[in-house]
UniProtKB/TrEMBL annotation, chain A:
Keywords: Membrane, Transmembrane, Transmembrane helix
One Pfam family of this chain: ABC2_membrane_6
PANTHER family from the UniProt entry: SLR0610 PROTEIN (PTHR36833:SF2), SLR0610 PROTEIN-RELATED (PTHR36833)
Protein name, entry field: ABC transporter permease
Protein origin, superkingdom: Bacteria
Transmembrane domains' residue ranges: 27-49, 122-139, 151-176, 197-216, 228-246
InterPro entries: ABC-2_transporter-like
KW Transmembrane helix (keyword) present: yes
Span of the signal peptide: none
UniProtKB/TrEMBL annotation, chain B:
Matches recorded under Pfam families: ABC2_membrane_6 (PF06182)
Recorded superkingdom: Bacteria
Coiled-coil regions, chain positions: none
Name by which UniProt lists this protein: ABC transporter permease
TM regions (residue ranges): 21-45, 65-84, 104-130, 142-166, 178-195, 241-259
PANTHER family: SLR1174 PROTEIN (PTHR36832:SF1), SLR1174 PROTEIN-RELATED (PTHR36832)
Length: 263, 267
């Protein structure tokens, strides 16, 4: 069973990369644009830290780590999660989801692995570059335990992002016109650029429990710095598994509501 | 296509724009939610200003500034670049060209037609701003109101004309949405959407004053929050409308030349 799905994943990945190789020119253009976006994402940081040494307990170097995580996750989101799931919305609108459902494999798996954009990996590299620069400014290297913890958190963050996306897509089964949901999602995700302790009150609650942005970027950065409490790590893992479970239930429920569009 | 028939068609086009906005109100609501960036920046900057004011801005001023930025962004939205790209690719631009009125008018009417619906979001936000951070959140003088409205219209015109110019480039190349992304990135950095432009280092300030971006968000926001005296405001408005004029020439030039190359794909 597992081997079959792994093979299927391999096939889908190969199809996506072949498609990407077809438009090699795009690789360069997209790469430049994505570096450009990363650079502009740093601009507010420079403006803010021109005024202050540290904000809400985060120095410039430390805040760079958060942006690094943001950039890295953005690469994963836009390279591996967004493209496939935007396709689902299109499928639902046109009624072609039928063809996916007819295939003898799990529909959620099929739609989630339908399309990858390999050139988005440039974002991941940019994120790694920001880590190096951030630690250079802080003046020390991350501890091994810290790096391991942050790798675990990378897993939970990706899982959270993916689950949130599945929940968003599930909405498409009920309200068909959701072309702009992607846009909405990315703009909310933008808030994850900043260390979570900046936000107070209602926003802090929303960004921790409703849309767990804090968990996605601030936690891994804190883990790298070696100041994330173990309990938070455990909570992040448990919470993201719960989120994944919930999104799976919602997906199954909404797919039960799917009535083809064409006929 | 005479000026008179255009004028006659305009009310109808606007009415269509309004009904479209009403029909897709849920979609519009999602759009509004996705432009909540100023509110996030407000949280950030008030956190920065908690201990001591940043330049001339205290916590209250930041709240005022970013609520105004939210209002201005809502009322100056334009999306013609994506529309034009889509219609050129699908070939449906041909349908618009058959009408006895320039498609640019219908794009413009569609954007403006969405504004009344947006007022339902914007007015409560403005009232909230007045009730929490005082009357300085809206222009205090009569000329302030006039200048604010003029700058708002100018800001929308700049946004719309840039959209047309970049959208039209899709007639010359395959797709210009990438170019729009670059423009947007510059817009976010330079327009005063993420931070008041006064906070820029002085060297950059001069550059920013000459670029069109700050006249899209920054200027209307500053006029709404009474940041300038009469003379300064007039000078800035002058620069804004200089950009409006320049962009009008550029975008219409590109449009007229581009249309000659248009050969409806698909069909």
């Amino acid at each position: 069973m597992l081997r079959r799905y792994l093979r299927l994943l391999g096939v889908q990945l190969r199809a996506s990369s072949l498609l990407a190789m077809q438009y090699r020119g795009d690789f360069v253009i997209e790469g430049i644009i994505s570096l450009f976006w990363t650079a502009t994402a740093l601009a507010p940081l420079f403006v803010v830290y021109r005024e202050r040494e540290s904000i809400a307990g985060w120095s410039f170097g430390e805040a760079l780590l958060v942006i690094g995580w943001f950039t890295l996750l953005q690469g994963i989101l836009e390279g591996a999660i967004n493209p496939s799931l935007t396709g689902v919305v299109e499928h639902i609108r046109k009624g072609t989801l039928d063809f996916v459902l007819l295939k003898p494999a799990d529909a959620q798996f099929l739609v989630s692995t339908a399309r990858f954009l390999p050139w988005r990996s440039i974002n991941v590299l940019a994120g790694l570059g920001l880590f190096v620069y951030g630690f250079h400014l802080i003046g020390r290297a991350p501890s091994l335990v810290g790096v391991l913890a942050s790798l675990v958190l990378l897993g939970t963050s990706v899982l959270l992002l993916y689950s949130l996306w599945i929940l968003t897509v599930a909405a498409a089964f009920y309200v068909v016109k959701v072309d702009n949901l992607t846009y909405f999602f990315t703009s909310i995700f933008d808030a994850a650029r900043w260390p979570a302790s900046v936000f107070r009150g209602v926003l802090a609650f929303v960004f921790t429990f409703v849309i767990p942005l804090a968990v996605m970027t601030t936690f891994p950065a804190e883990a790298m710095l070696g100041r994330l409490p173990w309990t938070s790590l455990v909570w992040a893992v448990v919470g993201s598994l719960l989120f994944a479970f919930l999104s799976r239930r919602v997906w199954l429920h909404s797919i039960g509501h799917y009535t083809s569009a064409s006929s | 296509m005479s000026a008179r028939s255009t004028l006659r068609a305009l009310p109808t086009l606007l009415r269509i724009g309004v009904s479209e906005a009403v029909a897709y109100r849920a979609e519009m609501f999602v759009w509004v939610l996705s432009t909540t960036m100023p509110l996030i920046m407000m949280a950030l900057w008030t956190a920065v200003a908690r201990e001591a004011p940043v330049g001339p801005y205290g916590s209250q001023d930041f709240v005022r500034y970013f609520l105004a930025a939210f209002v201005v962004r809502q009322l100056t939205g334009a999306w013609a670049a994506w529309m034009i790209n889509y219609e050129v690719r699908q070939g449906t631009l041909a349908m618009r060209l058959l009408r006895p009125i320039s498609p640019l008018w219908s794009y413009a009417a569609e954007n403006i037609g969405a504004m009344p619906m947006r007022l339902f979001v914007v007015v409560p936000v403005a009232i909230f701003a007045v009730s929490t951070v005082g009357w300085k959140s809206v222009p205090e003088t009569a000329w302030g109101w006039v200048f604010f409205l003029v700058s708002l219209f100018g800001a929308w015109l700049i946004t719309f004309l840039v959209n047309v110019a970049i959208g039209t480039l899709s007639l010359y190349m395959e797709s210009s949405t990438k170019l729009m992304d670059v423009w947007l990135a510059l817009f976010f950095v330079c327009s005063g959407y993420l931070y008041p432009v006064d906070l820029f280092p002085p060297v950059w300030r001069t550059l920013i004053d000459w670029l069109p971006f700050r006249y899209q968000i920054g200027l209307p926001v500053e006029l709404m929050t009474n940041a300038h005296g009469f003379g300064d405001a007039l000078a800035l408005l002058g620069r804004q409308w200089l950009w409006v004029g320049l962009l009008l020439v550029i975008s219409l030039g590109l449009w007229n030349r581009g249309l000659k190359r248009f050969a409806a794909f698909g069909g």
